[in-house]
Amino acid sequence: xxxxxxxxxxxxxxxxxxxxxxxxxxxxxxxxxxxxxxxxxxxxxxxxxxxxxxxxxxxxxxxxxxxxxxxxxxxxxxxxxxxxxxxxxxxxxxxxxxxxxxxxxxxxxxxxxxxxxxxxxxxxxxxxxxxxxxxxxxxxxxxxxxxxxxxxxxxxxxxxxxxxxxxxxxxxxxxxxxxxxxxxxxxxxxxxxxxxxxxxxxxxxxxxxxxxxxxxxxxxxxxxxxxxxxxxxxxxxxxxxxxxxxxxxxxxxxxxxxxxxxxxxxxxxxxxxxxxxxxxxxxxxxxxxxxxxxxxxxxxxxxxxxxxxxxxxxxxxxxxxxxxxxxxxxxxxxxxxxxxxxxxxxxxxxxxxxxxxxxxxxxxxxxxxxxxxxxxxxxxxxxxxxxx
Length: 388
Prior knowledge:
The protein is an alpha/beta fold. The chain contains 14 helices and 12 strands. The strands form 2 sheets. It has a 7-stranded mixed beta sheet, with helices on both faces. It has a 5-stranded mixed beta sheet with strand order 8-9-12-11-10.
């Protein structure tokens, strides 16, 4: 992959590939950082009016995206990746690759923005939408008893209740029924879970979160196990509907990916320590974190998540909504903000954010654990709960 290393890229660990941005140093200048190409249009050759490389117009292709997409496809074990302007743009490009009259089976407990988007879009597109408990495999089998083409959408662990679906088991049932499986892998990232290796057909990320990791890029990515006709429609959707990621944001995303493994591993270790600390805390009625043996999905999570259980958790406060809002009000290290997966730790009262369309208990606080000192994060929550 670079000078002084034995073996080719295939012999290197994924964290090494990520640290190098998935590319060789510039062969002319020796630059260790891939270049940024901001051009929106590209000239053609005079003699035959053909394009000089892959790009003619940035909405169809930009050279800056090549190392990012190549690296993400490699990390997820996929055939090809496409970057998008947001996670929702990536998700909806997949859904819009379906035809009217077909079906979407999605889990009820999932990121509320996408669930709301599906509930709005599917009826207008002529798609049947069925929301189920994806941890109930018998219920899934019932939902798959249809002669219509079906896309199954799962997110695991699911945001913000952190339910754990069994990807391999869901994939096996989808395969038997001729359905296509897409997995939102935003929270585990390929550091901890690789859904394609477990049988999924497609993977989606809100790259705004862990993949970028610095709260300064809005981006999404979709990765395919194989480049079939369905994937070709996803690619057309990106170009024709215009959900392409800009070159500067793409370049920043690659910069963030270079520290992905360090950040996810650090956040996972801290999250586990925090979950254990507050599991028996008198102010907390329940800690929702797949790494705890008490979590109902722990056994499945331990089987399909390697190296940790992620940096996301939720606390349900014994004092109800008032206690949850009081804790959020009093934190200093945890920042009161939406989103997740950044280097800074965030605390969020999800019921306030989701409003009337949400299904989250009012006593729940969602925590995104960053890379700060674990003791500081525990102390901050302790002082915020003092007196409850």
